[in-house]
């Protein structure tokens, strides 16, 4: 008998949830006996990528090990360590219940916001990998099957001279022609004079003209070859955001991302409703509850959740379902290793309203080496048909790129 139901349930209740699920819902796996599987361990290792990727492994007594990933954040590995006792002994097939269990336990242990949700996300992704392997189905099948066989990837581009329109256009052309992407993103919160007094959030006329010139130069250069989005990282006032969105309207960008700070939903809504340029928001919000408000208030044209931060695969799916009711497409924010990137690909495959997924590591050189499989080809990710997430960590590569002081995962 597992030991962590008490907190979720009336201690006087006659049945534990496991008994209920076994008797009334039938969690038996396709291979039979799946309901008898128990989680035996949870381990993390940090890899020094373009961000510190937090890889998570869930071990089971069936010999099946699942790999997940949490977005980086101070204290995430420690939080996962603290959550370990809440999942050991539990059935890894009860993904939803374990997610709610962790949320509920952690609300008493600190909070269910920020890095706590990030840490839970890493475990949740690993549970999908475990469940897929035990049930012998790819993870997208656990989410209802697929709408598409491949996911479009957009490349987050950088140059040393990020404020030089021609340098940005050169890089856009290179990424399209040499790396094969047909979707790109550039930063637009680049030096335009504004940074001398960033605190007032107001864009001076010359700054608007400079930013519009970057947008014009880049979009003209890759016209008919790529869609281009621009990211502002929560920098401008509502008024400046509207002026900027209007100034670039004629260049028909894919989207303008995070033009205003995240705290004030009314300002966000005002900007989105009063501009034609599509506005994308979402990467720094947590759980369906927070993103739901953005979507229901029609404060976003495109929603951009970060899967290994927002709550994991089913939470992203729930966000996409709310978005779909408002005809809002999903462009998944992603700065992760191949593990969470592929987890997001399974979710993107399983929803109708998927636009694309981000790739943030093209300058790294060894991103794909972390796993044995090929991941991105010609700007697209093929949805894997192997059980679970469908990737195998290359342990030599993990060891080579591990953050100093980390230890490698135990063997299965
Ligand atoms: O959309 C993006 O890729 C950016 O907002 C990155 O997440 C940010 O620079 C990380 O600190
Ligand atoms: Mg962004």
UniProtKB/TrEMBL annotation:
The GO biological-process annotations, alphabetized, read as:
amino acid catabolic process
Matches recorded under SMART domains: MR_MLE
The organism's place on the tree of life at top rank = Archaea
One Pfam family assigned to this protein is: MR_MLE_C
Write out the entry's keywords from A to Z: Lyase
> What's the protein name?
Mandelate racemase/muconate lactonizing protein
Mandelate racemase/muconate lactonizing enzyme C-terminal domain segment(s): 165-278
Q: Which GO terms describe its molecular function?
A: xylonate dehydratase activity
């Amino acid at each position: 008998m597992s030991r962590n139901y008490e907190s979720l349930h009336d201690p006087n209740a006659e049945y534990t949830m496991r008994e209920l699920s076994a008797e009334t819902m039938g969690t038996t796996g396709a291979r039979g006996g799946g309901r008898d599987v128990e989680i035996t361990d949870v381990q993390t290792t940090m890899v020094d990528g373009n961000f510190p990727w937090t890889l998570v492994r869930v071990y089971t007594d069936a010999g099946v090990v699942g790999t997940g990933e949490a977005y980086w954040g101070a204290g995430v590995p420690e939080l996962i360590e603290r959550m370990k006792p809440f999942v050991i002994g539990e059935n890894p097939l009860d993904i939803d219940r374990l997610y709610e269990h962790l949320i509920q336990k952690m609300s008493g242990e600190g909070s269910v916001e920020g890095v706590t949700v990030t840490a839970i996300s890493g475990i949740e992704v690993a549970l999908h990998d475990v469940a897929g392997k035990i049930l012998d189905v790819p993870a997208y099948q656990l989410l209802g099957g697929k709408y598409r066989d491949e996911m479009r990837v957009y490349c987050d581009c950088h140059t040393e001279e990020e404020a030089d329109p021609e340098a940005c256009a050169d890089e856009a052309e290179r990424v399209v022609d040499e790396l094969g992407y047909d979707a790109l993103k550039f930063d637009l919160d680049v030096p335009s004079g504004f940074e001398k007094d960033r605190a007032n959030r107001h864009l001076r006329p010359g700054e608007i003209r400079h930013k519009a010139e970057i947008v014009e130069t880049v979009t003209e250069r890759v016209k008919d070859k790529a869609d281009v989005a621009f990211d502002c990282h929560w920098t401008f006032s509502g008024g400046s955001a509207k002026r900027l969105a209007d100034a670039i309207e004629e260049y028909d960008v894919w989207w303008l991302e995070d033009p205003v700070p995240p705290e004030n939903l009314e300002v966000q809504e005002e900007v989105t409703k009063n501009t034609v340029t599509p506005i994308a928001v979402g990467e720094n919000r947590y759980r369906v509850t927070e993103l739901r408000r953005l979507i229901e208030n029609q404060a976003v044209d495109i929603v951009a959740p970060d899967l290994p931060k927002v709550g994991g695969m089913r939470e992203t799916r729930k966000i996409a379902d709310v978005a779909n009711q408002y005809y809002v497409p999903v462009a998944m924010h992603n700065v992760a290793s191949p593990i969470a990137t592929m987890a997001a690909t399974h979710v993107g495959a399983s929803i109708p309203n998927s636009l694309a997924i981000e790739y943030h590591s093209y300058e790294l050189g060894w991103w794909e080496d972390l796993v044995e499989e090929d991941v991105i080809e010609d700007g697209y990710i093929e949805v894997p048909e192997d059980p679970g997430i469908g990737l195998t960590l290359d342990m030599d590569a993990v060891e080579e790129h591990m953050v100093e002081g980390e230890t490698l995962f135990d063997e299965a």
